[in-house]
Each structure stands twice: as structure tokens, then as C-alpha cells.
Amino acid sequence: MTAVTVSDALADARRRLVGGGIADAARETRLLVGGLLELEPAALISGGARVLTQAELELLETALVRRLAREPVYRILGSRPFFGLTLTLSPDTLEPRSDTEILVERLMPRARAIVADKGTCGVLDLGTGTGAICLALIDAVPGVVGTGTDISPGALETARANAQLNGLADRFDSVESDWFSAVDGTFDIIVSNPPYIRSDVVDGLADEVRQFDPRRALDGGDDGLTAYRAIARKAADHLAPAGIVGLEIGYDQKEPVAALMSGRGFRLLEAAPDLGGNDRVLIFANS
Question: Does the predicted TM-score (pTM) go above 0.90?
């Protein structure tokens, strides 16, 4: 049997991903091979002559078959980076994207200001999924404590595991809740990346999203605004004085979401675009 080196495996994987129509095949090859072999990017080059074991070859083959079937790289690896954290993924959770990091970035200075004023900042993350937003804020801002809610017990289990994995479990709590239904008390920051894709659009999404992200984390109802209505209806009841609400939105939802929140007494403090220049983050105060 011919020996296969790391360099050989990289070349073969890239060729197959290109042939399978995978966009950015070079980057995905490095992520997949490096992640599965536990090699940092530099080691993929410096260790290129290392011969792979049969077990490693089988591991790579299984992963390539899964990726060519459109399973996303980070789901194959089982975890992904997010704002300096490592987050495990599960079938019950949406895979966090880089656009959501913008929401964290915009909330960080506000959380710091609240901590400076009050000594602590309580965050409620509605539809927490992996716990990404809440855990990133806890990690980035000393004094933040967070509660993640989700309708899915499996998602909450994943969020708790991620809190433990990243050493944040002592500042993170979880509640099984349909939006605010099981939530008690008030919070300084209420945040959410809710399902916001119109129901008739979900089936036309890329296979990587449609087949592997849970539909209920994507489907925002007939107009994509169902979750925002639920949040707008009850947010004021759970917001501390001088608190804020931070929401991720679809690219065309700034005006309707702002109108929903305005109708419940909130005023828009800030709107921020994503990396592509589309509206993505809205931050509100209770006026």
C-alpha cells in the first residue's frame, strides 16, 4: 500500500472538494484536515511529510464523504470557534455565524458600562442555542452573569456543556422556555438571534443550512417576524431600568422590527451592518 502523507491528504481533499462544487475548497480543506488531525495551520506545512496511519486515512475519508454530502465543516468537526470561545454543536442548535459576533461586539461596551455603574450586568439570551451570545458576553466582560433560554432541551444541554467547556458555568444559568413564558425577574440586557427567515424561503436555503440547522431555529413564520412579535410583547416586563434589548435581524427587517419595538415603547439606539454591509443588529432602549 502506498504511503499517504499529510501533504498528499491535503491535495486529495482539495481536489475532491473542488470537484464536488464546494466553495472556498482550499480553506475548507485546511480546516477539515487540520481539525481532524489536530494540526495547527503551520503544522500542516511543516509536518507535510508525515505519513498518515490507516485510522487517520479512514477518519479523513469519512469526513470528506460527509462534506461532499453538504454537511458543514464545523458540524463534522463537532465544534467551532466563536468570539474566542470553542462551542460544541449539536443537531438541536443553529451553528453560530460570524455575523452574530457583531451583536456581541456592539453589546460589549454597553455591558461594561452597566457593570461600572451597578457592579454586575444580568443578560437574558432568548433562544440561546449553543449559548454563543450569552457565553461570549460573560467571557468578554467581567461582572456579566447570564441566563440562556430555549424551547429545546437538547439545545440547553449543549449550552450548558459549552459553559462548562469554556470555564463559564458558574456565571451561566439555563431555563427551558418558549420565549418569556418561564422567565422570572428582570435583566439589564435582553438579547436574541431568533428565527427570522420567512417560512416560504427556508426550503430554498443552501443544503448546508436547510439540512443541518434545526428548522425551528430558522423559520420565522409567514413574514419572518413571529419571534420579534413575541419578544416585543414581553420584553419591557423583564427589562431592568436603563436596560437594553439587542437583536439580530434579517437583511431586510430593520424597518419592520424597529416598528414592532417602537409600538411597544422602545426606541432604537443603534443599528449596525454585517460584514457584507447589510442591516444585521438593532439595539433598543425602553423609552
Answer: yes
